[in-house]
Amino acid sequence: MLRDISLEIAEGEFLTVLGESGSGKTTLLRIIAGFEHASSGEVWMGEERLDKQPPYRRRVNTVFQHYALFPHLTVEENVGYGLRVAKRPASEIAQRVSEALDKVKMAAYAKAKPSKISGGQQQRVALARALVNRPRLLLLDEPLSALDANLRRQMQVELKFLQREVGIAFVFVTHDQEEAMVMSDRIALLRSGELEQVATPREIYSRPATAYVAQFIGHTNLLRAEVQAGVAYYSSMAWGVDLPDGPGVFSLRPENVRVVESGNSDRVANAEKAGVRVRGKVLHQAFHGATELIRVECADGLVLVVRTPSGARIQDEIELEFSGADAVKVRESPRRN
Amino acid sequence: MFSRAYKTAVTLPPVVWVAVFLLTPYLLMFCYSFWSVSPSQVIVHSWNLDNYGQLLKINVYWQTLLRSMWIATRVTIFSLLLGYPLAYFLSFYAGARKELLYQLVIIPLWVSYLVRAYAWKTILGSDGVLNTLLQYVHLTKHPLESLLYSPFAVVLTLTHIYTPFTFLPIYAALEHIPRNLVEASHDLGATPAQTFWRVIFPLSIPGVLAGATFAFVLSLGDFLAPLLLGGPGGIMISNIVVSLFGAAYNWPLGAAISLCMLVLVVSLLFFSERLEKRWSFS
Predict the structure, then answer these.
(1) Are strands A291-298 and A276-288 parallel, antiparallel or unpaired?
(2) Which of B68, B38, B37, B44 is nearest to B245 (CA)?
(3) Which of A71, A82, A115 minimises the CB distance to B188?
């Protein structure tokens, strides 16, 4: 189910449609490709209306989730399929196929059947098979989800590089927010069939539009505060805001909270400049490589997640500090099925 | 997982069954085909190749065998022409009615062979349904005698009877084709017709081969349809075998013909199996 989707993709852009399973991201892709029809609405590509055309007339190609390589054809024949059905001359087919296979480093496997090559290699062939037709738009349906973590990270970089090189607009579907952040020019975040936010990775991370976006992308602390006369109150904390009175949800990233060194002397001196402070007990400490995420229980059962550099000495009882400016006001996401 | 004794206990009965009721008769047949019948109608256990010699010398035997193969070939072609489109439609376009239609195709298999053969007799007979209709609409003045008791009637009846046997493996093969391959083909610009010939048909070939083998092998060995509807021109090789084992009381010659057919059918099965493997991809 998709509702009220309005999305514009620029020429040569890498747009990621991000969402949980069942959010409708694959449906959106299938509507663009022509395998499914929207009950209302239109799909345009430049001056051309797409949604009235059958899939085989659209200058859109798809890399399928499970690659969908033709098992009875060799790698070479798979890649040349689109050109052959378009009845291109044999010499042109041979040349473009070998170029495409070179581009994805699969030239050595040209004569192999798909069942004889690995998942990562099938992935490359599927990519070559789509790109060889020089589509205006390439759709990718979770193409990396079947690969193991290492290969996946490698393919993310390669795919991004390839997209820059060919200059074709990519619509990439994934449920992996990290993947979306690494690869995209813009991210369109879907939730239960509706767009929550469409923005660059940086923007979507630092200025999430809704509480859902803030939680979905990276870690965050959601502070459900009450605003009164330009001050947001939450538990024992208070910080200045430029908002009307009433309830307000704020997203505070763990890296924007710091641990105050005990016995810090400039504490009183900088009282004016200092941010919001709160004391708490360390509940849990999780190692994440360069940083650690610490869960701190403060007064009123409030739990804050804090990111600290790895190896920092943390006492059982600590004081936290953050700047009110880093608490980003977000919209409360409406409840949906 | 299972103990040796358990495995033996489970596998022994079927093995014994096959040995006693399948291999022994074949072995007996094999022996018979090298024996002969004395003028006083007694089977003589003297080993010779006379039966196989007769098979080559007497025209009626190998001619009937060739005619049987020709009938079986036509049955195969017609049941493929009927079974494939049916299976294709059911698998790709029937939607919610798929199950119902599938059952409808299968139902004739539950009806006795004889009933279906006799049904054609009443349709094709000189005062049968078809002739009555043709005369009623004044397409013919007199009943067409050549409808019944002809190779045509045999081919028609066998096609009717064995089409479900070609339909089933083709349907299974088509159901097995991942639908995302069809979508991928459309996505790459192939029209529905191109998609059929370049993707769907090649991937259904194992089913076509299996179905063709069923139709050919089963109709080659058929003796009821030619008996009921064939007439003198529609006699098939199995009818000769039946009469040799029966009225003619020449078991050795009957055994020799049966063995030839067995060799023919087994080598056919072997080749179609090889071909199916070549066209299977997983």
Answers:
(1) antiparallel
(2) B37
(3) A82
DSSP bridge partners of A238: A233
At A172 the three-state DSSP class reads strand
Residues of B in contact with A96 (CB under 8 A): none
Output the CA torsion B180→B186→B191→B192 (10° steps): 20
Listing DSSP states for A152-166 in one string gives HHHHHHHHHHHHHHH
- Phi and psi (nearest 5°) for A316? -70, -35
Q: Which of B225, B63, B243 is nearest to B159 (CA)?
A: B225
In this prediction the ipTM stands at 0.85
Say which residue the tokens 């430029």 belong to. A242
What does DSSP assign to residue A150? H
The end-to-end CA distance of chain B, in Å, is: 28
CA distance B194 to chain A (A): 7
Cα B51 to Cα B256: distance, rounded to the nearest angstrom: 6
| Separation in Å, CA of A85 to nearest CA in chain B | 6
- Rounded Cα distance, A90 and A84, in Å: 8
Among candidate residues B98, B276, B194, B80, the one with its CA nearest the CA of residue A70:
B194
Q: Facing residues of A285 across strands?
A: A294
Per-residue pLDDT of chain B (282 residues; tens, 9 = 90+): 788 889 889 999 999 999 999 999 999 999 999 988 888 888 888 888 888 888 888 888 888 999 999 999 999 999 999 999 999 999 999 888 999 999 999 888 888 888 888 888 888 887 788 888 888 888 877 777 777 888 888 999 999 999 999 999 999 999 999 999 999 999 999 999 999 999 999 999 999 999 999 999 999 999 888 988 888 888 899 999 999 888 888 889 999 999 999 999 999 999 999 998 888 876
The Cα A124–Cα A122 span in angstroms is: 5
Give the number of beta-carbon pairs within 8 Å between A and B.
68
- Ranges assigned E (strand) in chain B: 36-37, 43-44
Maximum distance among all Cα pairs of chain B, rounded to whole angstroms: 77
- Residue A294 phi/psi, 5-degree rounding, is -115, 130
Hey, what domains does chain B have and what are their CATH numbers?
57-278 (1.10.3720.10)
- Six token digits for residue B162: 């064995």
Give contacts of A66 with chain B, Cβ < 8 Å: 178, 180
Domains of chain A and CATH, by start: 14-212 (3.40.50.300), 219-330 (2.40.50.100)
